Amino acid sequence: MAPLRKYHAVVLGAGGVGKSALTIRFGRNEFIEQYNPTIEEEYRCDLIVDGERCILEILDTPGTEQFTALNERYLQQGAGFLLVFSLIDENSLRDIDSIRQQIFQVKGADMDIPIVVVGTKLDLNTEREVSRARIQELAKQWNLPFYETSAKRNWHVSEVFEDLVRQMRKCYPRDEHGRKKDPCILM
To answer: What GO annotations for molecular function exist for this entry (predicted)?
Structure first.
């Protein structure tokens, strides 16, 4: 039996957008009500995606305004990225574009990099600042999947992480002997 595949995901975005709430909801199925700025937290989740069991190691990072020197290290370490913004904060979406560009600078613009863009706080619909039309426009422009989630209500949380695992599985396949193949590069 082949060893369990292990994937390394990094959760990035501005402070207060719900990165930790999303990660804790997925990893522990809990919702943390109060905001506590994250320094750096790691979570290890055993999950099954499309019938295949794997381990997802998730690095929950501080808000983008709270780190700069660590930024490049996070980008180098990650095999896949969740770019998190708040649906009730238009500015947090702009931060995501900057992070997305940094990932391609560090990893290489010609790489196929597993990325999922996540809008949080879907349950606060009356406070929404980011329209669905804007999200659809960016999804098309960036050619990335976008999800709208609520950690509080547990809406679409697992889909985000499962999509990222599928992308990493596709980008970093194993050969017929169970060994990792070289990372995929689009030319």
So the answer is: GTP binding; GTPase activity
